[in-house]
Automatic annotation (TrEMBL):
Residues 196-260, 265-328, 335-399 form the SLH domain. Keywords: Signal. It comes from Lusitaniella coriacea LEGE 07157. This is DUF3747 domain-containing protein. It holds the Pfam family SLH. InterPro entries: Cell_Envelope_Struct_Comp, DUF3747, SLH_dom. PROSITE patterns: SLH.
Length: 399
């Protein structure tokens, strides 16, 4: 899909390691289940050991003595408070593969992948590497976003989170680095995760974009999953979902009329049948120059949208929204642009910078540091937030 700029088919495979690599070897269904946890109660760190680093996963027990303190940015340096007292009953510490492993969707990858720390390009990466005899690619799970003396915090890549292993209904101490399906909600521990929010979603209580998600859902341009009261904030957004969200957001501009598109008489793209649920909105977006197809003529409706592509659509949608209001499509800066540290030479460099000045539509990954991560798949929480910021900025424009 082309957006504001000529599209390059950028995706997770363009980085040194992939965020999700399918295995070729046969895998048996996991005998374990998962339980969601309060993310802020867990931390993964690179702890100096001999001449390298070892991975430690810590859990802060609720209502107990603080187990660690954080300082600095890029990287975040951890003060190991657990070394200053007997942490039994206050903290749980996992130091090897008996205590942590990788889980993707419904499958436990502990027997196929090992967790390792590697140093590359001035950064420490937490990666899953295939065990001997297993065919598969390296999986990127987190990074320290820099190197400094001391114990360093891993910032998990978008889509990854901590969960706990469950066996026959019993929650174990084993911690998963998890990507994919939502597990059993965490227990109510007196203010921890799992408490229903005003929107009814049990999985956004600790999400950095919680407030924006609730406002976006209230406005109605994005929805959750009523079958289990989840929003699934870390799930990636697809191309057709982005088109639908942009269309529904523009319909929330006061005083403008965006008619509901009718079912197209023919397929708007070869891979988008006229009968597909998103076909009418995709045709609308194509006809109004908000999106275009790939050079081969396809649209790839179910392919994940990168963060850069999301912003490209947000710019087109903002311009279209201003036009509907009878205003110039020019997007004047509302604040100082962000200087992102990883955008130089990227096709969306100027675009992302421009939209950071337009009410902060573009912002650093997880609102921390200076990295935008343009080629990373856009998660639902940030997609909802960026769309909300775009919509509110368009609504605030004056004649």
């Amino acid at each position: 899909m082309k957006f504001a700029l000529p599209l390059r088919l950028v995706g997770l495979a363009t980085v040194a390691v992939t965020s999700l690599a399918p295995l070729n070897a046969a895998r048996a269904a996991s005998i374990f289940d998962t339980q969601e946890v309060t993310q802020s109660s867990f931390i993964a760190v690179a702890s100096p050991f001999n001449r390298g680093y070892t991975l430690i996963v810590m859990e802060q027990l609720p209502g107990k003595r603080t187990c660690w303190a954080e300082g600095g940015t890029n990287p975040v340096v951890i003060d190991n408070l657990w070394d200053t007292f007997d942490f039994s009953g206050h903290c749980k510490r996992n130091r090897d593969s008996n205590g942590y492993s990788i889980r993707i969707g419904d499958e436990d990858y502990g027997l196929q992948y090992l967790l390792n720390i590697v140093e590359r390009n001035g950064d420490l990466l937490l990666v899953g590497t295939p065990r001997v005899g297993v065919q598969g690619s390296e999986i990127l799970i987190g990074r320290t976003q820099g190197i400094s003396p001391g114990t360093l915090k891993f910032v998990l890549e978008p889509g990854w989170r901590f969960t706990k292993r469950v066996y026959q209904g019993k929650v174990l101490g084993h911690v998963y680095f998890t990507q994919g399906n939502v597990g059993t909600p965490p227990p109510d521990n007196g203010g921890g995760g799992g408490t229903p929010t005003p929107s009814g979603f049990r999985d956004i209580g600790n999400d950095i974009y919680k407030t924006q998600i609730e406002e976006a859902v209230k406005l109605g341009f994005i929805a959750g999953f009523p079958e289990n009261n989840t929003f699934r904030p870390l799930n990636p957004l697809t191309r057709e979902q982005l088109v639908s969200m942009a269309f529904e957001a523009l319909r929330r501009i006061p005083g403008v009329n965006v008619p509901a598109p009718t079912a197209p008489a023919a397929s708007p793209f070869p891979d988008v049948p006229a009968s597909r649920w998103s076909a009418a909105k995709i045709k609308w977006a194509r006809d109004n120059d908000i999106v275009k197809g790939y050079l081969d003529g396809t649209f790839k409706p179910t392919q994940n949208v990168t963060r850069a592509e999301l912003i490209a659509v947000m710019k087109k949608a903002a311009q279209y929204g201003k036009t509907l209001r009878g205003l110039s499509p020019n997007l004047a800066a509302k604040q100082n642009p962000v200087t992102f540290s990883d955008m130089s030479g990227h096709w969306a460099d100027n675009l992302v910078s421009e939209m950071s000045a337009y009410c902060g539509v573009s912002s650093p990954l997880n609102e921390r540091g200076t990295r935008f991560n343009p080629n990373t798949a856009s998660q639902r929480n940030y997609a909802a937030t960026a769309t909300l910021r775009m919509l509110n900025c368009v609504k605030s424009e004056q004649q």
